[in-house]
Amino acid sequence: MNEQKIQEIHVVGAGLAGSEVAWQLVKKGHKVVIHEMKRIKKSPVHTSNLFAELVCSNSLKSMDLKNAEGLLKEEMRLFGSLILDCAMENRVPAGKALAVDREKFAKCVTEKLLKTGLVEVVDEEVKEPGSEGIWVIATGPTTDGELAEWIKKVTGGVLNFFDAVAPIISAESINMDVCYVADRYGVGSGDYINCPMNKEQYEAFWEAIVNAEVVEMDDFDRKLLFERCQPIEEIARSGKDAMRYGPLRPVGLRDPKTGKEPYAVVQLRKENVEGTMYNLVGFQTRLKWGEQLRIIRMIPGLENAEILRYGVMHRNSYIESPKVLDKFLRLKSDPRIFFAGQITGVEGYVESAMTGLYVGLNIARLVEGKEMVEFPRKTMCGALIDYITSAHELKPMYANFGLIGGGKNREKVAQKALEEMKQFIESTGEKHIEGGI
Ligand SMILES: Cc1cc2nc3c(=O)[nH]c(=O)nc-3n(C[C@H](O)[C@H](O)[C@H](O)COP(=O)(O)OP(=O)(O)OC[C@H]3O[C@@H](n4cnc5c(N)ncnc54)[C@H](O)[C@@H]3O)c2cc1C
């Protein structure tokens, strides 16, 4: 490949991820071409022409180190994250959360990038990357049109448009005095944890589900939803016994404590190889988050369930990163092309920015002739990158301690992760340049 041309770096989409990619490059003196379509065409969720627009809440979630989101931020700050620097500069009071004035925040990101003089902005809707140079696709969860078609082509037709995720809970919050390990008819290697219900418990649970509050959705989403899979509350509404003949069927799941099959069983399946996270099988749901917590805690053995990730059902485009991307978020089939942001399978503003930081940092290394580097696995950033590039069945994921494991003392886990990240920075020479450039 032509050495001169490969130095050209193009970022498609100046959202949370794309802006962070560009920042990690310009602060090291590299030029970046940003291709952003907002001035010509806006996605259904964007309204301003500024970079890094927060499309919904103005909160970047917790700053508390005992919270996974807090740890994620603290790790990113070690690298001089533009998104976090601007968030801190434009903070509005919100307790332990990092909430921002969204207009000032987006202005800050846009101005800091443009002020460097190293960013060229091309106002266009990119339909596919150019044939030369390095390209980063950071077009977010609403990617559509010709670019989506191109992505489908290069990723083997995989671009999910619907996100139906069952809640995920931490393994350590499951009461194994009540639940038991068993595979249906004994076929398997102890992959499932089962929560047994008697008739009374099942009926109370059914009653609670059919009366719980759900998140409303528009007709387009409703149609997609029913084409794909039924939420648990819809199954429940179709009849009192529907759940126990469906996802809660107990056949072949004898409880070793009684020697009998229970009346109904909620099955939990490992979400990660380490077995620190479990999902509720067949529980894709539109229930409001508060309702999910209340109802899940009615399940015998899950009275103290810690929900790591709530169930959701909504439109969301993301690729099957474990299949098509390498550890550096490059297309396996064309390593000139990187992906960053929510489209890689992370979920959330800060998580999206983090993947941008990772990609920007590694592209800088690449063009400087250095080895690319992977974040340590026991940091929140590293655990998230590891998850989206190796999950057996990728589900959009936000930061949570289940990804790292390491015990219930979150403060200790967080301190260890931060130490690891500092050592990583030291050993790779990735010094944080205070205040950028
Ligand atoms: C409706 C909705 C609400 C959300 N609410 C929250 C929330 O409250 N909290 C939270 O943490 N997360 C939320 N998210 C999830 C996620 O964090 C955000 O979507 C986040 O903005 C993703 O960052 P990103 O950089 O990947 O994409 P985006 O921020 O969406 O940026 C993508 C950019 O690419 C541009 N673009 C797209 N296609 C092209 C093209 N072909 N050519 C050129 N430019 C293009 C777009 O104009 C946009 O500027 C929400 C998502 C959605 C869809």
From TrEMBL:
<keyword id="KW-0285">Flavoprotein</keyword>
<comment type="similarity">
    <text>Belongs to the MnmG family. TrmFO subfamily.</text>
</comment>
<dbReference type="InterPro" id="IPR036188">
    <property type="entry name" value="FAD/NAD-bd_sf"/>
</dbReference>
<keyword id="KW-0520">NAD</keyword>
<dbReference type="GO" id="GO:0047151">
    <property type="term" value="F:tRNA (uracil(54)-C5)-methyltransferase activity, 5,10-methylenetetrahydrofolate-dependent"/>
</dbReference>
<keyword id="KW-0808">Transferase</keyword>
<dbReference type="InterPro" id="IPR002218">
    <property type="entry name" value="MnmG-rel"/>
</dbReference>
<dbReference type="GO" id="GO:0030488">
    <property type="term" value="P:tRNA methylation"/>
</dbReference>
<keyword id="KW-0274">FAD</keyword>
<keyword id="KW-0819">tRNA processing</keyword>
<keyword id="KW-0521">NADP</keyword>
<keyword id="KW-0489">Methyltransferase</keyword>
<dbReference type="GO" id="GO:0002098">
    <property type="term" value="P:tRNA wobble uridine modification"/>
</dbReference>
<dbReference type="GO" id="GO:0050660">
    <property type="term" value="F:flavin adenine dinucleotide binding"/>
</dbReference>
<comment type="function">
    <text>Catalyzes the folate-dependent formation of 5-methyl-uridine at position 54 (M-5-U54) in all tRNAs.</text>
</comment>
<dbReference type="InterPro" id="IPR004417">
    <property type="entry name" value="TrmFO"/>
</dbReference>
<feature type="domain" description="MnmG N-terminal">
    <location>
        <begin position="9"/>
        <end position="371"/>
    </location>
</feature>
<dbReference type="GO" id="GO:0005829">
    <property type="term" value="C:cytosol"/>
</dbReference>
<protein>
    <recommendedName>
        <fullName>Methylenetetrahydrofolate--tRNA-(uracil-5-)-methyltransferase TrmFO</fullName>
        <ecNumber>2.1.1.74</ecNumber>
    </recommendedName>
</protein>
<feature type="binding site">
    <location>
        <begin position="13"/>
        <end position="18"/>
    </location>
    <ligand>
        <name>FAD</name>
    </ligand>
</feature>
<dbReference type="InterPro" id="IPR040131">
    <property type="entry name" value="MnmG_N"/>
</dbReference>
<dbReference type="Pfam" id="PF01134">
    <property type="entry name" value="GIDA"/>
</dbReference>
<keyword id="KW-0963">Cytoplasm</keyword>
